[in-house]
Design brief:
- This protein is mainly alpha-helical.
- The chain has a domain at about 5-110: Alpha Horseshoe (Serine Threonine Protein Phosphatase 5, Tetratricopeptide repeat), CATH 1.25.40.
- The chain is about 70% helix and about 0% strand.
- The protein contains ten helices and no strands.
- Helix 7 packs antiparallel against helix 8.
- The protein is elongated and about 60 Å long.
- This is Tetratricopeptide repeat protein.
- One of its GO terms (molecular function) is GTPase activator activity.
- It comes from Microbulbifer thermotolerans.
- InterPro entries: Rap/Ran_GAP_dom (IPR000331), TPR-like_helical_dom_sf (IPR011990), TPR_2 (IPR013105), TPR_rpt (IPR019734).
Amino acid sequence: MFLGDKTLLALASLMITLLLASCAGTPTAGGKVSDYSTVRVSGSVNRDFERSLEYLREENYAAAIELLQSVIEREKRLPAPYINLAIAYYKNGDEKHAEEALLQARDLDSTHPVTANELAVLYRKQGRFTEARKIYTDALAENPDYLPLIKNLGILCDLYQQDIQCALAQFEKYLSLSPEDKEVAIWVADLKRRAKK
């Protein structure tokens, strides 16, 4: 599933922080930004981005799409608007445009964990399991402690690929980083029981 409300709000807060940064951007040799916290964004772009987050929370996806497209027209260096645009498209039933927006976000930052997670979840939902698994494993090489990647790779391995050892490894790693998650603890117990059969 694409991001839930709680995760979406946490991501939104992070994105607002990134968009509020006040220093000049640091482009790399390829013209891409290497440090998002240094990107200067105009006040109108930031206001529209914040408003798009309100539209997402209100489940007004058509309005969010329209506003995020406007944000992207004016600010093309940051992956956050593309990720949110993908979420809005997906929630609005448009997987094709959701994928396109995520691929654009990935073009901006190939190691962005949220982009990778959302794209892999989309591919999993489309039955593109091999592609999803590759995205998860590549992203975890760059972001080894990003919990949604770990958990979703475990879900893919368990429910869609019946790879108990992969699932167990992911969920145990997840629990080592987030031991209070009782649901995942139940999954681990179930996987261990199934592994003994």
